[in-house]
Amino acid sequence: MDFPTTLIPGVLEQRYKRFLADVRLEDGSITTVHCPNPGAMMGLNTPGFRCWISDSGNPKRKLRHTLELIEAVGPSGPVMVGINTGTPNKLAEEAILSGVVPQLAGYETLRREVKYGENSRIDILLQNEGKPPCYVEVKNVHLVRKGRLHEFPDCKTTRGAKHLRELAAQVGLGNRAVMLYIIQREDGDTFSLARDLDPDYAKAFEEARDGGVEAYAIRCQISTTSILATTPIPIVV
């Protein structure tokens, strides 16, 4: 995924009210931008971190700019992290279509945001005549606390546990269901669950896998011009 416009560098002043952030630009001015991430952003919201924002080009939009990247300090040193939770669905689509996730190859159609379950929408629905449909739920990952281990979630996510139960229900109906974790940073080699941050999600994950839900993790390459989902990494639980 290429960014459609050149990102603007700055420094994070503060992130607040979940969806707002103040960024100091290179000319010293401070602008309030949209922060497209409802999570805790653990380790990513420290004032003084370098960041990059996109410009919608729409002066009528309430917040014209969007926070896209943050250069955080991970266990291995500085690392660029994609924080936009609207990006992983596109990255997942590109990864599937390009064969980065071989387990999801062989389907004729790919549709996004299809209604299913308990008033929900599946991120990606793969279909092919003669085989069960495949329901793919995509989650954004940006947490690293120790070593080279990526973790999810970074805070309690009741909605995430609900999605796992709905995936398991699809398996019960004879369909295929997949949990796909898109990791928007590249300083880790394995993926696991942050059980201490949300034990209920970890339990729901285990129950879903026992019920036949598949799980895969894909690490991304990050730059100020593009984000690409390129590398499958093992899940350790």
Automatic annotation (TrEMBL):
InterPro entries: SfsA, SfsA_C, SfsA_N. Pfam families: SfsA (PF03749), SfsA_N (PF17746). Residues 87-224 form the Sugar fermentation stimulation protein C-terminal domain. Belongs to the SfsA family. This is Sugar fermentation stimulation protein homolog. HAMAP family: SfsA (MF_00095). It comes from the Bacteria. Residues 14-73 form the SfsA N-terminal OB domain. It comes from Pseudahrensia aquimaris.
